Every structure is written in structure tokens, then in C-alpha cells.
Amino acid sequence: MSEATLSPPTETAPRGAPGRENLAHGIGFILLSSFGFVAMNTIVKLLSDHLPVTEIGFFRQIISLGPIALVMQREGGVRMMRTKRPFGHLFRGAIGNLAMIPYIGSVALLPLADATTLTFASPLFVTALSVPLLAEAVGLHRWGAVLVGFVGVVIMTHPSLSWFTSGAEAGAGMGVLAAFLSAVMMITVRQLGKTEAPVTTVFYFAVIGCAIFGTILPFVWVRPTGWEWVGLAGVGLIGAFSQLCVTHAYRSAPAAALAPFTYSSILWGALFGFLIWDQLPSRRTLEGALVVIASGLYIVYRETRRHARPNAAEVVAAER
User: Are 281 and 288 in contact (CB under 8 A)?
Assistant: First the structure.
């Protein structure tokens, strides 16, 4: 449900101008965002005991529009609403917001650390889907890392027919589905990023989410209690704050340098899960998480090397 769960760093992560990088700031902001997203998901898990998924999703989006509007005003005002890709935003918004439904289901049914860990399957799906959807070349090393990563997911989730029933097994299936939908959304964001400003993409994501969940809301409405109103407000505000932290992080430092620190969210998930629900990650979850993290870091490493390697024309130009 976070934009890390359901809104990737690439969405609001344009690199800053050369010479403006600050690794310490980048690490600090990415750690803040990881903490914020887990805190938001903790509130979501508490709210899901009484409120329906679509109601939580609606308030997540409509409340986030306030901070987004402030950012838009700072970056150019109403003109930031202009877009060359309305249908791209519509598709991205529909996929991303619908992905919130299985993700919140996963958070509700699984220990928080388990649900958090499953979100890191998204980059594996992105790499796999980038071949048919973006026509990108993926070498043997990255394919190998993807396959190893999926082995880690299998270790964590132990897939079976019980994914389609109730209980923790269904939560695992929902988490994998949410990761897949999030990956489709990430690929759409890559395409939108060629012409659209990050804040424009975030704005339409929230607006489309309000429209989707708002249409369903009258049929599932449950009146929140006093503390639940506070929780819903917290979900929207903390989510927006965490997304802004992601923006600043990736503007301050390279993605490859920040990638290892995003996994701190697993630690926060384990801590909140233990303190509130007396839940600890199972051995199977920890083993699978280590495999997924290792494969994810290797993909980042190979991606960094691929972009850093100059082509022949660049070498000739440099020698002149």
C-alpha cells in the first residue's frame, strides 16, 4: 500500500543534477521513508480489523492529495496537471490502486514482517516483465538472479491451493499478486517518466484512486470510530510524507547506493509486529527473505554495471 509497495521509487526518484548528490542525506531520507511506510502499514493492519479495504484505500488517497497539492504548487502550480499521456496515467492509476486491495489483504492476514518482505518480489517481476513489455535486454546474470529470487519467494510463501482459501496462506497469495501488479505499475511508470514530471504522475495516481475507491465506497461504507478517523488521517499523511522522503532520497544519491537501505523496512516490520501482535518472522520467512534480498542486490549491481559501461562510440569520443 505504500508507494514502495504500490508506488515505486522510480516514480518520484529523478536523479538530481550532477554535483548535487549527498549520500548521507539520501541514506537518511530512504531510512525515514522505510520507517514511515511500515508505520503506515501498521496502522492499516490495525484498521483492517474493522474497516473494508476500499475504505482505507479511499482515505489513503484523498488525504494524500493535500501534501501533493503543496508540492505541485511549489514546482509549478496548475501547469503541473498538464499531461501528454492521459491514458497512460489511467492505466497506471487503475493497476496501482487495484493492487492496494490484495496488498491490504496481505497485511491484514500475515505477520507484518512477512507482508513487508513480500513487497520485495516486485523488482523480480519488473526484471522479468521488462523483456516482453519494454523490449529490454536481460542477460543471463540477471535472469539467474530473478530465478534465484523467485526461489526465495517460494520458500517464504510455500505456494499451494490454500492460497485461494482463507487464512495466512491466502495472505501469501495476495502478497504475491500485489507484488506482480505493482511491477506492472512500475513498468508503466518507466514509460510515463519519459514525458511526465514525477509530481504529475503521483497526482493522477491519487485522483484515479479516489475515483475508483470512491465509486465502491457507498456499497461498503463502515462508519469509523474516533480513533479510526485518526488512523485514516495518519495513513494518508504518513504515506505522503514517506513518498516525499523517497523523492528527496533518490534526488540526493544514486539508486544503487540506496538499495541496501530499503531492506531496513523488514526490520521495522518485525519490530512493530512483535511489539503490537507478539509476532516474529518464521524461519522460513527469514530464509526466503535472505535469498530475495541477495538476488535483488545482485540485480541492482548488474544494472549499475550495465549503465556504467561505455559503448564503443563513447570510447572513441573520449579518445578524441
Answer: no
- Count other Cβ atoms within 10 Å, centred on residue 131: 12
Beta strand spans in the chain (E): none
In a domain, residue 153? The reply is no
Q: Which three cell numbers stand for residue 309?
A: 559501461
- pLDDT computed for residue 22 by the predictor: 78
Integer CA distances (angstroms), 294 to 61, 114, 234, 265, in order: 33, 17, 33, 15
Domain that holds residue 83: 3-121+161-279
What pLDDT, on the 0 to 100 scale, is given for residue 309? 52
Angle of helix 198-220 relative to helix 53-75, nearest 10 degrees, comes to: 150
Asked if the structure places residue 307 within a domain, the reply is: no
**CA–CA distance, 318 with 144 (Å, rounded to integer):** 34
Residues of the chain by 3-state class (helix, strand, coil), percent to 5: 80, 0, 20
- Point out the residues of the chain with pLDDT beneath 70: 1-21, 158-168, 255-256, 304-320
DSSP string, 119-181: GGGHHHHHHHHHHHHH-----HHHHHHHHHHHHHHHHHH---GGGGSSSHHHHHHHHHHHHHH
Look at the chain and report how many structural domains it folds into.
1
CA–CA separation, 55 and 49 (whole Å): 12
- What is the reported pLDDT for 167? 59
Q: pTM, whole model, 2 decimals?
A: 0.79
pLDDT of residue 237: 92
| Grid cell for residue 95 | 493497476
Cα within 13 Å of Cα(311), Cβ side = 2
Burial pattern 262-288, b for ≥16 Cβ within 10 A else e, equals bbbbbebbbebbeeeeebebeeebbeb
C-alpha span between 130 and 137 (Å, rounded) = 8
- From CA 233, how far away is CA 254, in angstroms rounded? 32
Q: Is residue 42 part of a domain?
A: yes
The amino acid at residue 55 is E
CB contact set of 134 (below 8 Å; sequence gap of 6+): 187, 190, 191
